[in-house]
Amino acid sequence: MRKINFIVALGTGLLVFGVALTRSVPAGTVPSQAGTIPVKPRYISLAPATTEILFALGLDEEIVGVSSFCNYPLKAKTKEKVGTFSQPNVEKIISLKPDIIFCTGLEQTPVVNALRQLNLKVYVSDPSNIKELLNSIRDIGRLTGREKEADTLINKMEQVLGQVNVKVKLIPPEKRLKVFIEIWHDPLMTVGKKSFVDEVLTLAGGINIAADTLQPYLYFSPEQVIKRNPDCIIQTYMSENEPLKTIEKRLGWKEISAVKHGRVYNDINPDILLRPGPRIVEGLQELHKKLYP
Amino acid sequence: MKISLKISLLLIILIVAILLAITKGSVDIPLAELLLKENWQVLYLRILRILVAIIAGSGLAVSGIALQAILRNPLAEPYLLGTSSGAGLGAVIAIILGISSIYLPLAAFLGAILSIILVYQLAKQGSRIPVQSLILSGVIVSIALSGIMVFLISVSPNEALHGIMWWLWGSLQFYDPKLLLLVGMVVALGTFAIFIFSQDLNAISIGDEEAIHLGINTETIKKILFFITSLITAGIVSICGVIGFVGLIIPHLTRLIVGPNHKTLIPASCVCAAAFMVICDIFSRTLFTPLEIPIGIITAFLGAPVFIILLKIKQAVK
Question: What are the average pLDDT values for consecutive 10-residue runs of chain B, which has 318 residues?
Fold first, then answer.
């Protein structure tokens, strides 16, 4: 009995000691050496979109880590991987000693909280529309000392936006196409009013048939697609099958205007259409060309 | 083998596991360099994780032991009585309200406590809580709350909810030392309290009537232990989500090693569970770096075979 008491006491003691130990080593006591020696800043990007923005601002060597989902530009693939998009590895991130970590909201919220608790500087870029994306690019430019490059990039993007807008304005409202954006087929998913893609579609001159929904991304009933009869269907995922053939097989979809006229597309690179990064304007251009050739 | 020797052996395993866990991680840093000041943060991170593993493991195992005894059911485990779904619902509500960054653990804890009170009220018959109705109301509350939780997830426009999966699978990634200290204290005190009742647990696990004949007030003790185990579980769930298997298998495993006497079983399974969790976490962090495998999967993968082997050895000896 005494032995067991001793073991319990020992265990509790160890526990208390351990906890005391962690408290005596507050996070962030490691002094940043950036002030003393002129070294290059170190950035980590946890989202494909922020990685694209950083590279587009002319940064390269400064980027010391990316997520395994970051596939553009090609150079991003050569960078150290710090985990997946939704599960970055905190230990890996810390060992790379980043000055700023760029990431997005949504699934990364828990990670952002964890990194902030460790006193790391985190910038969250979570734009819900193009205006916020441009602001976000400006912010990132300011944080990384690349204001000029950011301004140039923003101007370029605004130019494309303007070009498409001029063309779209010429299309009379009654000639605008009703479009169904198919994010995934099983279960059927689409985008609602509050999504980035909805805005891109509207700018490209299309009308989202699911624009009356609250969620940015949602499950959508196939019956609703038939009822709302879109003029065009855009699949935003790569598939080996001929898109029209697979869609024709769906019960009742043959009567949809888009299927009748063969206007089902899946050849827009989803990365430029769904990713809130600098290439979103390319996605806009391609989408516009698809809808109004 | 003497029991004290067995426990010391478990302690040695735990210490070796802790040392391994400090040196192994997703980044390869030699121990000597790890102690340098520039690598303190990595060291700090690993120590925090080890502490979470120890606290969660031993708390869940001891809760499992107490519940298996008072419910006289070998399948009893800390999540049986609805704590996890209550905590999950609390967490989902916190995320929907947009207060998850600070209040998620608190919301999960409150959810767990409310579900416990609900279970208790449903199970109560007069001043008694019969074991059967406690299990039944626990399962019912658990199912109902999970239903509400999944409903909220499916109708809510909040995309941050996708992150809830990460939480529901269990994770030892927790970096708030103050909250960890708090939960650690709840677990340590609760474990100690359960340990004080070990003689009564011995009697109750034989049978209610036998315990009453031995002069034990079984109803009161059942109620006290129900609340203590619930508190421990709620605390652990609120910081690391639902880690399955440990609370069920470690008590049985330790019983095979040191026997059914709660006086030795409780401290031994504390050590055993702590070592088990620390080892599981090493695998979770290092198997597919930089990817991390949810700890609950490792506990199942590693725990089931170990348990089966021990069971077979025991049967062969008999």
Answer: 86 94 82 77 88 94 93 86 87 80 83 90 87 90 91 75 69 82 94 94 86 86 90 88 87 90 94 94 85 84 83 81
* Best residue of A1, A2, A91 to probe chain B, by most B CBs closer than 10 Å: A91
Q: Which residues on chain A are in Cβ contact (under 8 Å) with B42?
A: 91, 94-95
Parse chain A into domains and list their residue ranges.
12-146, 170-291
Closest CA to B169 of B245, B65, B109, B275: B245
- Is A170-291 the same fold as A12-146? yes
* pLDDT for the residue numbered A7: 45
* Edge-to-edge strands, sheet with A122-124: A63-66, A43-45, A100-103, A122-124
pLDDT at A26 (0 to 100): 40
Q: What is the SS3 string spanning B217-253?
A: CHHHHHHHHHHHHHHHHHHHHHHHCCCCCHHHHHHHH
Q: Domains in chain B, ordered, with CATH? A: 3-317 (1.10.3470.10)
Nearest-neighbour CA in chain A from B273: distance (Å): 13
**Residue given tokens 């605004």 in the structure block:** A158
Total residue count of chain A as it appears in this document: 293
Mean pLDDT, consecutive 10-residue stretches, chain A (293 aa), reads 47 48 41 56 94 94 92 90 83 90 81 84 90 94 94 95 93 92 90 90 94 86 93 87 84 90 90 91 94 90
A170 Cα distance to chain centroid? 31
Q: Which helix (H) or strand (E) holds A264?
A: strand A264-265
Tokens of A163: 């070009």
Architecture in CATH of A12-146? 3-Layer(aba) Sandwich (3.40)
Query: What CATH architecture is A170-291?
Result: 3-Layer(aba) Sandwich (3.40)
Cβ–Cβ gap B292/A109 under 8 Å: no
Q: What was the ipTM of the complex prediction?
A: 0.71
In 3-state terms, chain B is what percent helix, strand and coil (to 5)? 80, 0, 20
pTM of the predicted protein model: 0.79
d(CA A222, CA A150): 42
